Amino acid sequence: MEQIRSFIAIELNEVVKQRLHEIQEILKIPGSECVKWVEPENIHLTLKFLGIVLAENIQAIAEAIRRAAEGVNSFTLEIKNPGAFPNLTRVQTIWVGVAGDLKALHNLQSKLENSLKKLGYPPENRNFTPHLTLGRVRDEASLSFRQNLGKIISSTIIESKLTIQVETLSLMRSQLTRSGPVYSRLSSVELKGSCQA
After folding, report:
1. Reported pTM
2. Which residues are paired to 5 by β-bridges?
């Protein structure tokens, strides 16, 4: 029985990915080999991580996504300044925030959770915090490196307005390899009002 590691995401256009790559370069301070940077083509906005699912269940998941997307119009998000989890003095995960029509985003994510719950995928325990992960600090990184990185993150301002037009939801496959994860789209659903051909 084939098993697939999968998640549901909003994919980004090439302009946004390029800009996020430029932000990654700004954040690469001495010692940045302690950071596992996300390849720009892999940066996305995760709406729901499903984990390992059986290949035979992919069709039902795609249908649940389609049901969640019914009646949802396309909407616009904006990239905000970088930040870090859990905080800027103990940087573990480096990300950029998301602004714009967050009400529509949270509504869509909630509809997804409800639709998938019927298939046996429990809702997340923690609140949905939309962000785009740029990198993860390796366990061996020193506290002083994490603190210095936090200072750079807090002083990095994204000045030009960068928008994401959310028109499609994608069910993604994640294949873990030695050189990092490889993502591929299993299926996608267009939102109402999107202008894609």
Report:
1. 0.90
2. 52
Question: Candidates 3.90.1140.10, 3.30.565.10, 3.90.420.10, 2.60.120.10; correct CATH number of 3-190?
Answer: 3.90.1140.10
Q: Looking at the predicted structure, is the pLDDT value of residue 147 above 80?
A: yes
Q: Are 184 and 173 in contact (CB under 8 A)?
A: yes
Domain residue ranges of the chain, discontinuous segments joined by +: 3-190
Instruction: Identify whether the C-beta of residue 115 lies closer than 8 Å to the C-beta of residue 65.
Output: yes
Question: Closest Cα partner for 88 from 31, 151, 130, 155?
Answer: 151
Per-residue pLDDT of 31-56, as tens digits, reads 888 999 999 999 999 999 999 999 99
Helix ranges (DSSP H) in the chain? 14-27, 58-69, 102-117, 143-155
Contacts of residue 70, defined as CB under 8 A and 6 or more positions apart, other chains included, come to: none
For 65-86, how does the pLDDT look when each residue is reduced to its tens digit (9 = 90+)?
A: 999 999 899 999 999 999 999 9
For residue 94, the one-letter residue type is I
Are 153 and 83 within 8 A, CB to CB? yes
Tell me the helices (H) and strands (E) count for the chain, helix number first: 4, 9
